[in-house]
Amino acid sequence: MATETKTGLDQVTKDIIKSTVPVLREHGTDITKRFYERLFETHPELKNVFNQTNQRKGDQPKALANTVYAAALHIDQLEEILPVVKQIAEKHRSLNIKAEHYPIVGENLLLAMKEVLGDAATDEILQAWERAYGVIADVFISVEKEMYEEVENKPGGWVDFRDFEVVRKEKESDVITSFYLRPADGGEVASYQPGQYITVKAEMENEPYNQLRQYSLSWAPGNDMYRISVKREDPMGEFPAGKVSTYLHEKVEEGSILPISAPAGDFVLDQLDERPLVLISGGVGLTPMMSMLETVIDKQPEREVIYIHASRNERVHAMKARVQEITEEHANVTAYTVYDEPADPIACDKTGHLDRAWLEEVLPTNQAAFYFCGPKGFMRACYQYLKQLNVADNDIHYEVFGPSEDITAS
């Protein structure tokens, strides 16, 4: 993509924006929380777009606050945040966010700033942020326009949602079920890169709004259908059962129709890299890892692969038999299993949690490409262990479930 990030802002405006950085650091999440409240009060139809579970948990306001803060911090050089822009734009494209949504967001964001900051949000500050928001929105709109055009013009590609039929439903473990999806119109499917995801639109009875959820594609590209493998999110503490995962597990059957968006995402396997590949997953984080593993044994059959999977026990471990089959057929692949509470201690290679000492023991080198995915606590631990093992920053690749969150803090 050749998107430019020239700000077009005068120096006075930039200076005012930069002066708000300390305020955003302190009050950013309060502002974005109030923003979402305002947004859904004035435009309840947008509840069809935003994940309401992430709203309840506070993940989405925090993610937006981090983005606004980064934009203010780098207002002189917005190209510094272009990687983050592209990551968010991938999600926006998969959710079918359009240019006409940006003025609505801008208006409510400025009003939320005014409400939360009170007299500290002077007219001068609000006017500066209005100009800055316009520039930042233009960057997003431009990047997303290119993404929409690219996906629409590729073979089998489409924009918005397209109906797919569930042609097979397969239980993978006590909590994970796979769904095989084929276009209901009989057409071809768009190709994708291993690690990408699709967005499912769940149209559930007795629910006032549709629900959108993103699920990684869990097998290699090149098939005439897609596969997603979904964990049933059971009630946990103050949080109820996941509406969409429960709906998929209990209501969706073979023959059901699911509208989905075209594959998206920037967490993808670099197939030009021939160095050893280390895949690390926790729980249902195995879904993009399986796509990468299936791809590399087909496209790079000589590449050394280490696959480490961690889960609570063998009953919730999905696709273990498939990984074992791959290791038996491909001498270049080695797999390890870590169980927190195994029913049978000999069913895994390590009992308890991943730790740095064990990783150092089983990893042949730190000069490799590392990809990991799983719950946020698991991801933070993986990142810290790899840094302690002196793995280079550009060799560490990860994807966070839900809104992006900084997992790099020690």
UniProtKB/TrEMBL annotation:
User: What are the protein's GO molecular function terms?
Assistant: nitric oxide dioxygenase NAD(P)H activity
Boundaries of every FAD-binding FR-type domain copy: 159-270
For the ligand (FAD), the binding residues are: 197, 213-216, 400-403
Chain intervals for the UniProt region annotation (Reductase): 156-410
UniProt cofactor note: Binds 1 heme b (iron(II)-protoporphyrin IX) group per subunit.
State the NCBIfam families in the record. PRK13289.1
- What is said about the domains? Consists of two distinct domains; an N-terminal heme-containing oxygen-binding domain and a C-terminal reductase domain with binding sites for FAD and NAD(P)H.
Protein name, please? Flavohemoprotein
Q: Which organism is it from?
A: Virgibacillus xinjiangensis
Q: Which gene encodes it?
A: hmpA
